Amino acid sequence: MRHLRLTRQESRNQTRQRLCDSAQAVFMKKGFAAASVEDIVKAAGYTRGAFYSNFHNKVELLLELLRRDQETIRAVLHKISGEGATREEMEARVLDYYGKLNHDRKHCLLWMEAKLLATRDGRFRVCFNVFLHEKLEQLSAYVREFSARAGTPLPMHAETLAIGLMGLLDGVRFYHVLDPLHVTEHVAESVLSEFFARVVLGRRAERADDAAPILRKPIC
Fold first, then answer.
1. What is the pTM of this model?
2. Each residue of 144-176: pLDDT tens digit?
3. Residue of 162, 181, 119, 189 lying closest to 111 (CA atoms)
4. CATH hierarchy code of domain 59-201
5. In this predicted model, what pLDDT tens digit does every residue of 173-202 receive, in sequence order?
6. Looking at the domain covering 10-55, what would its CATH class be?
7. C-alpha–C-alpha distance, residues 191 and 187, integer Å
8. For the purposes of burial, counting CB atoms within 10 Å of the CB of 179, is it exposed (0-12), middle (13-18) or buried (19 or more)?
9. Sign of the C-alpha dihedral, residues 101, 104, 107, 110?
10. Where are the domains of the chain?
11. DSSP of 110-124, one letter per residue?
């Protein structure tokens, strides 16, 4: 069977994709600070030359990963509120989405690494804040849309509510990563879906139940 030869741009896109995939895995395993360019190219099966022909440094690659994740989130939210979706369908989709966000461990850890770097690197913080502001504007817009379709007034400004929702998402996912025995997937899912259902949609989430975590004193 004859294989089609990739164009120069297709080959470049493939190389960038493999570098991004490898970097994501390496950042998860070693952390951004400890990961080296050598670690990334070794995992991708490339040379340092291939890396530097696509990215200036690790920071630029990290920003590319954040940009791609941001685009994925935007596409998912757009699909949730797509044309023709009824209020009931949209509510079910958004509750399912926010309830299961904690399952996506690799992207959660990616943003944690970026936040740590932003606290230490002022130049990176400027770039990172662009992503945060975009997420806030995007989430605020969807909160207003969900509220309008559900016919329930928001208890506070959409921007304020979006900040709270972003903070809750980060916190719940962080605790799930740290202590999955007690903050289980079921608990995290219930917290997130219940919050959105009550505060944004003005009702109780159908899946909510007695999912309170059992907190035990850790043995050190």
1. 0.80
2. 887 887 777 888 899 998 898 888 888 888 888
3. 119
4. 1.10.357.10
5. 888 888 888 888 888 888 888 887 777 777
6. mainly alpha
7. 6
8. middle
9. positive
10. 10-55, 59-201
11. HHHHHHHHHHH-HHH
